[in-house]
């Protein structure tokens, strides 16, 4: 097992900055290079986080022998090409969600990683947080009885900008692509617990929502039904503040998570938790504390996974990523068709 891991970052936006900041507090992972849409942006990022280097092109970053792993935090449409280029360069890859804009594209990335024998993970950072492991343990122990339903929301309200990445389809606009993968991945995870598997796939999907003037989905809801009879209602939004609360319903009660997607409500995630409501019992608040920010936990999980090619459950495996993309494809198709 490797002791340390040096990272190159693709992208200079807010998420890339949060990753760089988090790794400054990691003793085992560090950022050594960055590339943006221009050398000037990369150099500004370099100065901000005191990095050893900045690159003018992705090829230059991938040629840096110090870069052992690549964190891709660029706009969604660029993910496939950048991930495959990084894989072909022999670098391990952590790619922000969604890993691609359709399942077929995701499959090409996974095939490249398998061929080159490098680690690859889709960066659903909440799956790397101890909050999820504690939730899984409680559900598996039957704390709320047989689990029957999940309601999972992830939505916010921003001004409609036809040229912005959240609304322009050419830039991967729409709430399903931006944040819909979170509630879908959560529902599939809990459905897997019900079925005694790492995850499960829905057998039926019904969708409704609202397409904006650009054709991007500004609000989307899907009802997922699984073979076990378990159901999930998932909602995403970029023009409607539906919030981030997620509730798991069981025969004996429910578990309420205020914001599982960004534990603690910020990108540090040092303190978070959930509340258990059980019939005939006192309400139980479960508090989860960590010493490192969520992005550092995610980067260190990649390090701890090596030399394996995939992360261990409940982080996203390749099959989990591909299944999630297929559900998102079906959700978008059903919404547009409806």
Describe the structure.
- The chain starts with a strand and ends with a helix.
- The chain has 338 residues and is an alpha/beta fold.
- The chain has helices at residues 14-23, 39-49, 58-62, 79-88, 103-116, 130-140, 175-195, 294-305, 318-337, and strands at 5-10, 29-35, 69-72, 92-96, 120-123, 147-157, 202-211, 217-226, 231-237, 239-243, 246-250, 253-257, 271-278, 284-289.
- Helix 4 (79-88) packs parallel to helix 5 (103-116), helix 5 packs antiparallel against helix 9 (318-337) and helix 7 (175-195) crosses helix 9 (318-337).
- Helix 1 (14-23) links the parallel strand 1 and strand 2 (29-35).
- The protein contains 9 helices and 14 strands.
- It folds into 2 domains: 5-124, Rossmann fold; 127-292 and 311-337, Dihydrodipicolinate Reductase, domain 2.
- The strands form 2 sheets. Strands 6, 7, 8, 9, 10, 11, 12, 13 and 14 form a 9-stranded mixed sheet that branches. The protein has a 5-stranded parallel sheet with strand order 2-1-3-4-5, sandwiched between helices.
